[in-house]
Structure formats: structure tokens, C-alpha cells
Design brief:
The protein is built from 8 helices and 7 strands. By secondary structure, the protein is an alpha/beta fold. The structure holds NADP nicotinamide-adenine-dinucleotide phosphate.
Length: about 260
């Protein structure tokens, strides 16, 4: 299926690794020109080179922290009028809410709620004027089923989800959609780091814990970031113009509810 986005431009945030990288790779395969952002230059340039080699797409790499005004300004300077915006950032750390300070909360809300809102604000009117836009926010399955130790994430992402629900019905008339994709457990650096902490607390090896966790997923395995990227590319497609304000769960069957 040709997704009808060849020649479009995309700004993919937090894209040197993991799910953001998966989205960038899948969009590049569809002939989209990319600007990818992450803080660490080395991994970012490696990823840019890999995407160019695999797809032939044009890729601009911007080393910037998307959670800061300066980082967003640098990203938007490199790609001022994206047709596609993928909002993403690192997730907040796990912990007990009794230990979190106001500064911890501000950091989580900055990265996982206000940064995507600022990026939407900076790009959505141009998309409306040009008559095409696709905005995808990478959130989490914790929006549907909160994860106890990830209270900072549960809260900040729910705030973003509520905001998106309010505006996504205003833009769709102009062929600009805004949707969220909710990952379950994907085998990325983030997941490994979280599981290493859990394994240590449980006095287990990381390998044993990963094996047990993957078997507990109804699919019997962790998700592959490439699967996530392909869903993102579809949500960004010309064909997906009639879907907006939705929360797409991709979790190998983990969420147990009927709806
Ligand atoms: P990952 O493998 O650790 O990759 C994170 C990427 O984001 C890296 O490229 C990182 O590069 C970049 N990044 C982090 N903070 C950034 C910032 N402030 N500005 C710019 N770039 C930034 O993580 P992931 O697993 O793909 O997770 C992506 C998001 O999905 C996270 O918010 C995570 O909490 C959420 N999520 C993941 C899972 C999962 O199973 N993997 C499940 C639910 C939710 P630099 O560090 O160099 O900046």
C-alpha cells in the first residue's frame, strides 16, 4: 500500500533510538524527508546515516533537548514547516510519589506534556494553511492502565492526552489529524534500563526477568520498534485522514479490557 506521503517532510523528536527511531525509519521508507532530534550527537548521526543508507531519504540531524525552549527552537529552525510531526521524549524515572519534589514534577510535565504542546502550537497553523498535517504523540499504555511506579509518566501523559482530545476535532476539517500511539512493552534501551532496576531489586538476572516479562505478554514477546514505526507511518498516511483524537494501543494484547 502506498501511503501517499512521498515528498512530505517530517520532524521526528527523540529519534536516535527506540520508538522514535522506528517511526523515523518507517517514514523514510515511504519517501518522507526527515529531521531527527536527540540530545546525544553520536547516536543521532549514526541513526541518520543508517536511515539514509537503508532508504535513500534525506535526513537532517539536530542535536537538541526537545524539553527546552532552546532545543525546540533549534529543531524548528532546521524544519520550520513540517507536514508530519512526531512528538516524543525520554520518559520520567520510576519511583515512589512520596519522594518526588516539585522540580521532579516540572521536569516530567515539561518533557512529556508541555514540549509536545509547544511543538503542536508552533506547527499546526502552517499545516492547516497548507491543507495537510499529521501529528503523532508517542505516549504510553500507562494512559489506559496506570503503572504504579511510573506516576510521573501516568500523570504528565494523561494531561497531554486530555489536551489533544480537545483540539484534534478542530483541525481535522483541514486534513490535519492529531493522534496518540500508546506503546506497551517494546525492547528498547528504556525498557532494558527499567528492567535492570527491577531485576536488581528482585535479586534476579536481567536476562531471567526479560524472559519472564516477555512470556507474560499475550503475544509471548516484546514489541519490535519497527512494528511501532509502521503503525506511526500509517497514522501519518494520506489514507488516515478520517482518524483524529484517537489513542492507538500497540501492546501485544497486554491491556485486558474489552474497549
Ligand atoms: P529509548 O530507547 O531510551 O530512546 C529514547 C530516545 O529519545 C533516544 O533517541 C534519546 O536520545 C531521545 N531523547 C530522550 N530525551 C530526549 C530529549 N529531552 N530531547 C531529545 N531527545 C531525547 O526510549 P523508548 O523506549 O524509545 O521510549 C520512547 C518514549 O516512549 C519514552 O517516553 C518512553 O517512556 C515511552 N514508552 C516506552 C515504552 C517501551 O516499552 N519502550 C513503553 C511505554 C512508553 P538522547 O538520550 O541522546 O537524547
Amino acid at each position: 500500500m502506498d501511503l501517499g506521503i512521498r515528498g512530505k517532510s517530517a520532524l521526528v523528536c527523540a529519534a536516535s533510538k527506540g520508538l522514535g527511531r522506528g517511526c523515523a525509519m518507517s517514514l523514510a521508507r515511504e519517501g518522507v524527508r526527515l529531521t531527527i532530534v536527540a540530545r546525544g550527537l553520536e547516536a543521532l548521526e549514526r541513526t541518520a546515516a543508517e536511515i539514509r543508507a537503508a532508504t535513500g531519504a534525506g535526513v537532517t540531524a539536530v542535536a537538541a533537548d526537545i524539553a527546552t525552549p532552546e532545543g525546540r527552537a533549534a529543531s524548528l529552525a532546521a524544519c520550520p514547516e513540517p507536514d508530519i510531526l512526531v512528538n516524543n521524549a525520554g520518559g520520567p524515572p520510576p519511583g515512589d510519589f512520596r519522594d518526588w519534589t516539585r522540580e521532579d514534577w516540572i521536569r516530567a510535565v515539561d518533557a512529556n506534556m508541555l514540549a509536545p504542546i509547544e511543538m503542536i502550537k508552533a506547527t499546526v497553523d502552517g499545516m492547516i494553511a497548507r491543507g495537510f498535517g499529521r501529528i503523532v504523540n508517542i505516549t504510553s499504555n500507562s494512559v489506559k492502565a496506570p503503572i504504579e511506579e511510573l506516576g510521573l509518566s501516568n500523570a504528565a501523559r494523561s494531561g497531554l492526552t486530555g489536551f489533544v482530545a480537545g483540539i484534534a476535532r478542530k483541525t481535522v476539517r483541514h486534513n490535519v489529524t492529531i493522534n496518540n500511539i500508546l506503546p506497551g512493552q517494546f525492547l528498547t534501551d528504556r525498557l532494558r534500563t527499567r528492567m535492570a532496576v527491577n531485576a536488581q531489586a528482585a535479586g534476579q538476572s536481567l536476562e531471567a526477568l526479560l524472559e519472564a516479562r516477555s512470556r507474560a505478554i499475550p503475544a509471548g514477546r516484546f514489541g519490535d520498534p519497527a512494528e511501532f514505526g509502521d503503525l506511526c507511518a500509517y497514522v501519518c498516511s494520506a489514507q488516515a485522514a478520517f482518524m483524529t483524537g484517537q489513542n492507538f494501543l500497540i501492546d501485544g494484547g497486554t491491556y485486558p479490557g474489552t474497549y
